[in-house]
Amino acid sequence: MERKKVTLPDLMRKKEQGIPLTMLTAYDYPFAQAVDNAGIDLILVGDSYGMVVLGYNSTVPVTMEQMLTASQAVARGARYSFLVGDMPFMSYQAETAEAVRNAGRFIKEANMDAVKLEGGSKVAQTVRAITNAGIPVMGHIGLTPQSISQLGGYRTQGVTAAAARELVDDALALQAAGCFAIVLEKVPERVAAYITKRLHIPTIGIGAGAHTDGQVLVIHDLLGLFDRFLPKFAKQYAQLHGNIAQALSAYRTDVETRAFPAPEHAFAIKESEWETFMQSADDVATDVPPVFVDDSVDATRVY
Ligand code: KIV
Fold first, then answer.
1. 8-245 belongs to CATH 3.60.21.10
2. Which of 17, 46, 227, 290 is deepest in the core (most CB within 10 A)?
3. Nearest ligand 1 atom to alpha carbon 23
């Protein structure tokens, strides 16, 4: 079947039919291509970019400009997945008009299909203003890393009856404000299952158990590319950190032992041109070995 770009109605249809939604983060062109080629429904250019790529200790320092640059690269690599740009801390909290303008930049300058922002009832008005501007919004409740100081750490949310009730109210407020989906991060499985049943829009879980409408992971966790920690809720499908270390060490050895570059990596000069050149050469570098390769076709990049 011919593959088509994922749309909002496709996401709703999957919820109605009980088909799990898949979402992964990506922050650059090659990973966006890989995620898109794998048939993943949604790509989130998450502000986790700040931690797993830029090396910050939290997502708080991430700026609009950094998110836009990453989003632009992702949009160039992905053809079919639905693209969500994560609004960074302080790009939507201070003023509604500023929030709408910043959301608009993700769509207009970075080719995103939607934006995501953190918070429940308190951001419902902002969500309404952004959706009124014609921009789809994904909500994000439970553990909201941008408010990590206020939450007192990366602990599970909604673990008391009152806190679970608050999460349900937040989810309903976001749905009423026009969100097309909501991320539930690090909340008890039963609470996530309950919220998923109460909503007509999809829930996408991360550390929220098996009963949400979809799942999301940070791609660096999934691939074993982030060395600082692995959250309990993440599953590692590869340990690329180790593979990369091996590849880099092999490169170093090859260069040090002159095994790289090999003749097939080099370019030739015609013998007649070389001889003419040598006649005019007035230094001692005349014992340069010849290179016999066919370099008439070179489809590689030119830096
Ligand atoms: O920034 C991010 O990657 C996220 C996901 C963890 C949902 O918000």
1. no
2. 46
3. 7
